[in-house]
Amino acid sequence: MEQKSNAGYAHPEVLVSTDWVAAHGRDPNVRLIESNEDTLLYASGHIPGAVHVDWTADLNDQIRRDYISRPGFEALMSRIGVTPDTTVVFYGDKNNWWACYAFWVFRLFGHLNARIMNGGRLKWDREGRPMTRDIQAYIATRYQAAERDDTKIRAFREQVLQHANAGLPLIDVRSPDEYSGKLLHMPNYPNEGALRGGHIPGAKNVPWARAVNPEDGTFRSVDELSKIYQEEVGLRSDDNVIAYCRIGERSSHTWFVLTYLLGFKNVRNYDGSWTEWGNLVNVPIAREVPATSIQEATKTHATA
Question: 236-247: per-residue pLDDT in tens?
């Protein structure tokens, strides 16, 4: 499945091209999965044969703030006709933002045979490739999943606090205004409940979308990514890194980039992110200070 354009990535096998999907998307051992921020987008048109995985209804517990259980994941995989040997190929809107989120959740349950269609819906559409509103039904499978493993690629608040106190690398992938504390939410989005603005002390700001080419949504070259994350930020491939955003969706994209494209060995996604950290009692928050402040060009630390 490796594409020539993927040369140089640490794990080029995790990406497939739109050409590959056009040729192999209907193969019996392949399942295309569309996962979008806009959960109504699939119904307006999708790649023929693709199934819909709704990040709110299918991947998240409907009562607790957590992901689905092992039985829930097994039921999802059975419904979309997937076996442990099926190659699942994710794609979606917003530069594969939510496709990477779904990929990350599937990894929690140990489904390793997973890929991302480079460029997502944007590239497929701009190439004038076919879309359909037909819903493909697949024969249900009997899928047996491993217990969800939250230890390797997921971080929790106490772990993040220890990580920050130890001065280990944190990457805040939100917009600069969210990072500075000017906004409590993504630009052009409503506030989702954070009471404090700012960032986790020590975190460096690398907005997630810097990793993609704006013209077609594909990932930047390995040289460009290395310049952003290693030269500019100073990360090393053997660093213990935690990425976070608002609820872990944008940071799952950065987790994917660092892990699979640059080959970092130890990257975790803090999915509690700012909607949790910005509401926690007695945790440190850093904010940028206006230039007019007597503490010019420094950061202040507040307590939430």
Answer: 999 999 999 999
* List of residues 6+ apart from 294 with CB closer than 8 A: none
For the chain, give the longest Cα–Cα distance. 67
Round to whole Å and give the CA distance between 5 and 111: 25
The whole-angstrom separation of Cα 180 and Cα 201 is 11
Q: What domains appear along the chain, each with residue ranges and CATH number? A: 4-126 (3.40.250.10), 157-303 (3.40.250.10)
How far apart (Å, rounded) are the C-alpha atoms in residues 268 and 271? 9
Contact indicator for 252, 276 with CB cutoff of 8 Å: no
Q: How far is CA 36 from the centre of its chain?
A: 12
Q: What is the pTM of this model?
A: 0.92
pLDDT digits (tens, 9 = 90+) for 23-32: 999 999 999 9
CA distance 270 to 163: 11
* pLDDT tens figures, 53-88: 999 999 999 999 999 999 999 999 999 999 999 999
Extract the tokens encoding 171.
């990457």
For the chain, report the end-to-end CA distance as a whole number of angstroms.
48
Report, as residue numbers or ranges, the catalytic residues: 245
**Crossing angle for the helix pair 97-108 and 249-256, to the nearest 10 degrees:** 80
How far is 302 from 200, CA to CA, in rounded Å? 10
Distance CA 276, CA 264 (A): 26
